[in-house]
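Record type: monomer structure entry
Structure origin: computed from sequence
Chain ID: A
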Amino acid sequence: MTIPGIERFVEAAEAAADVAGAVIRPFFRAGLAAEQKLDQSPVTIADRTAEQAMRAVLAERLPEHGILGEEFGLDHPEARLRWVLDPIDGTRAFITGRPVFGTLIALLDGDLPVLGVIDQPVTGERWVGVTGEKTRFRGPFGGAAGCRPCPSLDRAELSCTSPDMFGSDIPSWQRLSGAVRRVTLGGDCYAYGLLALGQIDVIAECDLKIWDWAALVPVVEGAGGRLTGWDGAPMRPDGDGRALAVGDAALLAPASALLSAPGRA
């Protein structure tokens, strides 16, 4: 699918990522205080200032587009093309000095993510995904965009940010984690970038909001992977927030079957 004006939209997304990074870097490991939001997630001045900077860039370049951000809500709800922003995905990692957070920028056409950026402003790594195109990656540590073959779960590297997110779904996580070769924890959006580089094979998470997952879909799928709900269906803005990413499409059905087995709450 060719999206009219997509390169202009990519340029705007990268400009937004650039200004967010310029805001975020001086705050990293600077002893920044964090507040608790109503949902008990942390937020800092870096989150809020970075989102405001991105909004300013996108509103100047593309004033007809909508913008939905984690910190400041929705502008232009009538717009068919809508940006979805998470200035710091992984605020817990950010405030504890770990460079495994990221800035997420997505463009939705209706409910469909058509462009996604994962930017790690401290390490200088950036993933750009566009529907129908190969994911682009640049960074100083090597690696190339492209998921690796992994035909069976018993050979797979599984990741999630924290098992604490599963709540009553913990039996589903335990079934999947018991079927893989190895499990690593932590990473937020950065883990999905690593899956798109062929370093991780499966990620299962839940309770994701649209700003947590919208940018990840074009990046993962442009690298040859899949990102769906636990049932294997496409992620939806009105969905339940359960996400399953696989680098090899052969893993989707068996992983989904374990996560969705009877007994899941």
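Annotation 1: The radius of gyration is 17 Å.
Annotation 2: The domain at 153-259 is CATH 3.40.190.80 (D-Maltodextrin-Binding Protein; domain 2).
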